[in-house]
Amino acid sequence: MNKTVSFSCNDIWAAKKRIEPHIYRTPLLFSKALSEISGAEVHLKMENWQLCGCFKVRGALNKIGASSEQQRKAGMVTTSSGNHAIGVAYAAHTYGNISTHIFMPEGTDETHIQKVEMWGGNCILKGAHYQESYEAAQEFIARNGGTYVHSHADVKVMSGQGTMGLEILEDLPDLDALVVPIGGGGMISGIGTAVRSSSTNVRIIGVEPEAAPAAYRSMNEGVCCTSLTPAPSIADGLLSGVNEMTYNIFKHLVEKVVLVGEAELKEAVSLFQKREQLMVEASASIGLAALLHHLQDLRGKKVVLIVTSRNIDAVRYNQIVQA
To answer: What is the per-residue pLDDT for 239?
Structure first.
C-alpha cells in the first residue's frame, strides 16, 4: 500500500453523498453535566447512536458502496476487534448480501461477534491481538482471494469517517477544539481533513490508551509506529499500530496526542453513565478521560468529543464500572 495518497475534503463530500441514504445523521449534544465537571463547554458527537452502534459503518458503507461488481463477487475480507467488523457486515448486507470473512482477535467481546453474525458476517477468531488477526486475513486472501476492507488505511474508509467532521462543522462552526480517539488513525485523518478544510484555528487533539501509544510515539519520534504489542486495556478498539498512510495525513493536522491510563478510562466510562445515562465502550470514553486529566487548558473552550460506540457486553461493562 502506498505510504502517501491523494486525499482531500472533496473525497469526503463524495462519501457524504454516497452514504447519506444509509446512515443516521447523528446529533451533536451539549452536555451541561460534563461541562460542569471539566470546566469546558462539552459537546458530544453521538456516534454511539449511529446504525450498528458505532461510527465505523460510515467508512465501510463508503468503501463497499464504491467497490466494483468484480470486487463484490470476490467477497469482502477484513480485520477488526469489533466495530469495524460490524460496519463491514452491515455494509455487505446493505449492498446485496455480499460474502464477508472477518478476522477478529481471540477474546473479542461476544457482543461484537453477535452483531457481526446478525448481519451475515463470517467471524474467524485468529490471533491474540489486531496485528496477528491482520496477518491471518492476508494469508486467507493469498489462498482464497477476496477484497480487503482496511479498517483505517483506505481513502474510501477515511472519507466515510470524515463525514462526521462535515456534520460537526454544520452544527458547531465556532468550535475551539476536537478531541479524537486514535486506533489506526483513519478517523482522525478523515475528521481532521474535513475540519481543517474550513478552519485553521480548531485545535485537533488525538488521544490513545497508554497500553498502545502508537500515534503518540509516531508524533514524538517522527517515525511511524506501524505495529506494537499492546498491553491489556479495556479500550480494546484502540489497540493497534498506526499505518504510514494515515500517519502521513494526520501528522499535519494534529496538535498533539495525549495518553490515558486505565484508571482514567474506567472513571470516564462511569461518568458517562452516572452523569449522562449513557452506556458506552471504554474506547468511546477516552476523549472524556483526556479532557478531565490531560487537557486542562481547554477550560472555557467549546470542545467536541466523539462518542464513537456503544457495543459492549453488559457483563464486561458492569465489571468496568464496579471495579
So the answer is: 87
Determine, yes or no, domain membership for 144. yes
pLDDT for 2 equals 44
What pLDDT does 5 receive? 83
Residue 125, C-alpha cell as written in the block: 477468531
pLDDT at residue 1, as a whole number: 42
Three-state secondary structure string covering 162-186: HHHHHHHHHHCCCCCEEEEECCCCH
Q: At 44, is the secondary structure helix, strand, or coil? A: strand
CA distances from 266 to 9, 285, 288, 320 (A): 35, 9, 11, 6
Residue 3, pLDDT score: 66
Cβ–Cβ < 8 Å for 18, 66 = yes
pLDDT of residue 37: 97
Residues of the chain with pLDDT under 50: 1-2
Whether 81 contacts 123, CB under 8 Å: no
One domain, residues 61 and 49: no
Tell whether 72 is covered by a domain.
Answer: yes
Cell of 59: 467508512
Q: Is 53 in contact with 75 (CB distance < 8 Å)?
A: no
Give which of 124, 60, 66, 69 is closest to 92, Cα–Cα: 60
Q: Which residues contact 314 (CB under 8 A, 6 or more apart)?
A: none
- Please name the residues in contact with 98: beta carbons below 8 A apart, sequence gap of 6 or more: 64, 72, 75, 76, 92
CA distance 286 to 209: 8
Distance CA 242, CA 152 (A): 9
Find the farthest-apart pair of alpha carbons in the chain and give their distance in angstroms, rounded: 56
Closest of 263, 185, 177 to residue 217, by C-alpha: 185
Domain coverage including residue 316: 9-54+154-322
Which positions ≥6 away from 165 have C-beta within 8 Å? 12, 190, 191, 192, 193, 194, 195
The reported pLDDT for the residue numbered 7 is: 95
What is the value of pTM for the model shown?
0.94
Q: Which helix (H) or strand (E) is 206 found in, with range? A: strand 203-209
